[in-house]
Fold these 2 entries.
Entry 1:
Amino acid sequence: MASNESRRNYFRRRWVSRLVRSFRKRYFRLRYGKKPFVASYYGAYFHIDLVDSIARNIAYRSLEWAQLNHMIRACQRLKPSYFIDIGANCGLYTCILGIRETEAEIISVEPDARNFARLIANIELNKLKNVRPLQVALGEQRGTAKLNSGPQTQTGWSKISADGIGYEVDVIALDDLIQETGKVIAIKIDVEGQEKAVIRGMKKLLAGNTGIVQVESSTTRDSVIEEMRSLGFTLDQEFHFDLIFKKH
């Protein structure tokens, strides 16, 4: 009976969630059309352009809902010294974690010029003082790379180009930026296929500290798990393509 009731509650919540999302879609389109506006998600505020899929799903309060909930709870429990948002885009994680009372230093990394401008605008909108935004790409070692911004409708597709198409961006290794040991850290990585290079550029940081690391990995899952395991992190949970690692 309890199992059946839990199942019914689950599907009831999903139905209500879809109904609310459908309502918000119609409301925003009718009220704003193609005009930009500001919307809230998890208590933070964001500049919204409905043309962009990322911004649109923030407005609908559906973007990475489960992952954000998990990261918020983990940071409240672990009280990390650093929260590092790698591939920050417009600052979804940066702003939602930043508005919460935390002593963590937030480092927000976004190489794409278009996305970085949106990140800065959202940091300012939320009046965040504990964020250090960096317009660089992370990789295995210092250098440069070509970055392809992708279409205006999909700003989340911005990525380091394998064929040399795009504009030049600086690349640094996170180990060159942070030399800390014995700390608790929280990291989110969403870098469109460059996750192994990013992890290899932060091996010292991961090996010398504990905490939680969330890695989006659609094509490199097994090798990412092996790389993280070699640094003492075990796979704890999965949310679609997002792998959640922990180390005590």
Entry 2:
Amino acid sequence: MNIRQLKQFISIAQTGNISRSAKNQNISQPALTRSIQNLEHCFGVELIERKANGVFLTIYGQHFLDYARNMVNDAQRAKREISAMHSGERGTLSIGVGPVFSAGFLSTTLDRLLAKGPHVEVRLVEGFVENLCSDLRAGKLDAVLSLFPDSFDTSDLCFSGLCEVESVLAASANHHLANVTNVSKKQLATSNWVIADQKSVTSLYREFLDSVDTHTKVHHIRANSMRLIKNLVQESNYLTILPRILIEPELAAGSMVVIDGRMKPWVSVGGIASRSGGFQAAVLKDFIGIIKEEFSFTRDRLALAESTFIPST
């Protein structure tokens, strides 16, 4: 049984005439008769019966007619949708987004994507790069747009770097080290911290503490939300390490400051990653292409400071 046979059966049901249906289906009358006989053979019953005044559906044919119409309609709809997916006009896209990439930047990118494919469905998942890339490798996400630390391994992914972003030591303007110049390692190590709950940041923090000879007990909190980290820093006596672009409004307003501390500079690469090899849907290719095009305007949309944003070459 195939779609062609179903269309021929439906035509006979509509016209009640073999020769007219054969003409409509662009097939000879004997070929149409054989096709219907083969269809009947599939079910083991007669679907049509010939009478002097035309061709009529049997009780089995009448029952089968709705199924035949649904199968033809489903096949035609599937063909349209797959064609639209192939051209990027339809599809589902799951994107993991790191906290640096603002809604303003994403909205412009998604507007362009949806204008090209009005039937595209997009799912956005916010998080840190390590968790997002774990989901990417597991097939739960199609791409990840985030900061990638130098220590992060992307060798098994298809990765495109877009920019470099500097992270800084930051604290509330009311912190006791806020106005201190050339803060010592010991002063930093004996302060309380709140840091992002991701391996790369934790490793940087631990490496720093190990380099300082102090046994003073300090408190550190790990959090999986940049918004929560910023709130804790502004409202409490904590130090943190954050991408500078995330705190530019607070620095400008004077509620947060960059600490003049002795920690090595930390730069991450902002980029987009997808799974390497295998099939890549047209809608994903379009999204990655638009991201790369739009990034020439990123400084305006993310309000990046000159010193914290360096386009990748």
